[in-house]
Design goal:
CATH class of the largest domain: Alpha Beta
Radius of gyration: 23 Å
CATH architecture of the largest domain: 3-Layer(aba) Sandwich
Number of helices: 11
Strand order of the largest sheet: 2-1-3-4-5-11
CATH topology of the largest domain: Rossmann fold
Shape: globular
Order of helices and strands: HEHEHEHEEHEHEHEHEEHEEHEEH
Helix content: 40-55%
Distance between the termini: 79 Å
């Protein structure tokens, strides 16, 4: 009888310990705007999620929901994650900003991290990458390599993040090729392969032999490959499957170190609301391999620019620069402040067309 009681006590103790371990496990949620197989933006966020899982092992459980529309449905998904016990939730698209703030107010003990937005709260941080630094490198390559002097740019949503990228690419293409012209086509979605492919085809028909994109699928590169004689760049992810074709380099979003650090902060109880905006120097923005399709001197020029940006020796938005309407913006040697960049809603001088509302 005594042995039975000891055994029963041990089972109860083991059960309590197991329950405590389950409660101690940190649950980290991710809300994605596209499918994890998009090959671009969402793919790279999910690679970072996997890195979190691998780094922390059994200490952490990660969950995600993909292809969540920006708007009311995002709020529903976040609410469900919080109700199911998420300790930290990463919401990974600009249109999730207000839903994140709304849900966070209802769950003050849950920590939220919103990508590319600007609204914060005591339990809401914001984070983004200086993608425009990578656009400067791409613009340099584009300006040097175009033979038609027409560069096509596929825009997703006309928010400051995307407008910054167009401006940065154009400024640096123009620096190395005064005759270059940019044509911009907006698709008004982050991920829609059919629309992205159509946009690429339209731009190619209009003479573009270089295609840049701020959309999430590989469809523009597929269209460039089909057309022949057109180069492009990986967006958000390396899109290396096109390295033997039109893809000559890429911008790679490296979220893993940030996600690991913020998860560790939740585990340690040191998490606070912050705003993070990192670029090439800290490693949040990577430049994918520049292929041999790029002449050696152009590759060297692009890499030198990358190194100068990483070292803080050069800033992509440095005057003299004017706005599209010809008004002065930055004087000789003047560098744009982060506030202006964060709220950028204008093209620089030389870009034709209007920014959609």
């Amino acid at each position: 009888m005594r042995i039975t009681r000891i055994f029963a006590s041990a089972v109860v103790a083991l059960g309590l310990a197991t329950s405590a371990m389950a409660q101690d496990k940190t649950t980290v949620g991710f809300v994605y705007v596209g499918p994890v197989g998009d090959g671009g933006w969402t793919y790279e966020h999910d690679q970072a999620r996997k890195a979190v899982q691998e780094y922390f092992g059994d200490q952490v459980e990660t969950v995600y929901v993909e292809s969540v529309a920006e708007g009311p449905d995002a709020e529903r998904v976040m609410t469900q994650m919080a109700l199911k016990g998420a300790d930290l939730i990463f919401t990974t698209s600009f249109g999730y900003m207000d839903p994140t703030i709304n849900v966070a107010a209802k769950f003050p003990n849950v920590k939220f991290e919103h990508a590319t937005g600007y609204k914060r709260a005591d339990n809401v941080s914001t984070y983004s990458a200086r993608f425009y630094e990578g656009r400067a490198v791409q613009g340099t390559i584009a300006g040097r390599m175009t033979k038609s002097n027409v560069v096509g740019y596929i825009g997703s949503i006309p928010i400051p993040e995307v407008i910054r990228g167009i401006n940065s690419a154009y400024i640096h293409a123009k620096k190395v090729n005064p005759d270059v012209e940019f044509k911009v086509v907006w698709v008004f979605e982050w991920f829609n392969p059919a629309k992205e492919a159509d946009a690429a085809k339209v731009l190619i028909e209009q003479g573009a032999d270089v295609i840049l994109q701020h959309t999430d699928s590989t469809a523009p590169l597929a269209a460039a490959a089909e057309a022949g004689g057109v180069i492009g760049f990986g967006q958000a992810s390396d899109m290396a499957e096109y390295k033997d074709g039109p893809r000559v380099s890429s911008i790679i979003d490296n979220w893993a170190p940030y996600y690991i650090a913020r998860t560790q902060a939740v585990i340690d109880g040191t998490w606070t609301s912050v705003d993070t905006w990192d670029g090439i120097g800290p490693g949040m923005v990577g430049i994918g391999e520049i292929t041999d399709a790029v002449p050696a001197d152009v590759k060297a020029e692009a890499l030198a620019l990358k190194d100068a940006i990483a070292a803080g020796e050069y800033f992509p938005f440095t005057g003299p620069l004017k706005k599209q309407d010809g008004s002065d913006w930055l004087a000789e040697g003047e560098v744009a402040d982060d506030g202006t960049l964060a709220g950028m809603k204008f093209y620089v001088e030389g870009i034709e067309g209007d920014i959609p509302n």
